[in-house]
Amino acid sequence: MDIDYLLLLQGLREATGGIFDELFNAISKFAVDILPFLPFVVFWCVDKKWGYRFITTLFTGEVINGVVKLTVCAYRPWIRSDLIEPAGDSKVAATGYSFPSGHTMCATTMYGTTAVWQWKRRRAIAIFCIVMIALTGFSRNFLGVHTPQDVLVGMGESILIVLIVGFVAKKVEGNDKALDILTLIGIFFIIAVILYVMFKPYPMDYVNGELLVDPLKMQKDCFGGCGGVFGLLVGSYIERHFLHYEMPKGAPNLALLSCVGLGILIAWDQWFAGATVKLLLGSNWGTYVTKCFISLFALLIWPLVIKKFCGKKEAAAE
After folding, report:
1. Do residues 93 and 86 lie in contact, with contact meaning Cβ atoms separated by under 8 Å?
2. Dist CA 70 CA 7 (whole Å)
3. What are the tens digits of pLDDT across the range 279-294?
């Protein structure tokens, strides 16, 4: 049934001349190329507490999604059926195994956290985010890169993550001892995940003498999530105990500095990391270090820059 559904959507794409392909491709790409940087802007210049929640849900989602993917090891729709032909270049961005959908996970954690945050403040924004979750999930089906079950489970696991992170955040808010215990537990969890994905058995199916899917290449996204969580754990510990970042509300250059910091992170993630750490360490550990640096930069390095250029002015204004 899942393949039949994708073939139905594929027929719709062909019947309409592909006029919707770029729209849904853009929705998908936005979910993984731009949306993951939202948490850092929130942390720097909007709401520190919610910034932490955004960062936690984002990287936790990447880890959980990666573990499930590498456990189930479901092949992509076009491997399962020769009749499936993904739209445009959407196949290029469809890395890893198929189940559950990483794009849907990312969209649901980010849009979902925003919806929870804004539900009582700006209901229209919350509703818009819910609609975007549905559109992103549907886009993965429409483009032919994920089955309905990939999308639904991606949404389901992410909704659970958003709710659990929110529940735990409320329980431990202001309790540094509890947060330190969670930090230690988190570090051991990340070590366990890395060992699991490195040494578990993977399907080694060949067609015409060629390996269908190289499991080493499929581990990259999970390594990235682990790096992001590790950076979050270490960075948050240092920030809580030593840095004590307080957002300088009203500082005239806070928005500009946040934009500059965002540009640095995007440049690092999209270009510089590939030419440095990924080249030296390989795809998996290079991605781990890339995401770890993103967390540390967001929680420690750039807040120090903001404090230096905004802190004194804000203090003087008070």
Report:
1. no
2. 26
3. 999 999 999 999 999 9
- Burial (Cβ within 10 Å: 0-12, 13-18, ≥19) of residue 261: buried
Give residue 229's identity as a one-letter amino acid code. Answer: V
d(C-alpha 197, C-alpha 280), whole Å: 21
Inform me whether the pLDDT recorded for 318 exceeds 60: no
Distance CA 189, CA 226 (A): 9
Lowest mean pLDDT among 193-197, 215-219, 302-306: 215-219
**Half-sphere exposure (Cβ direction) of 99: Cα atoms closer than 13 Å:** 14
Which residues have a Cβ under 8 Å from the Cβ of 283 and sit 6 or more positions away? 216, 217, 220
Strands, E assignment, the chain: 206-207, 210-211
On the question of a cis peptide bond just before residue 252, with omega within 30 degrees of 0, the verdict is no
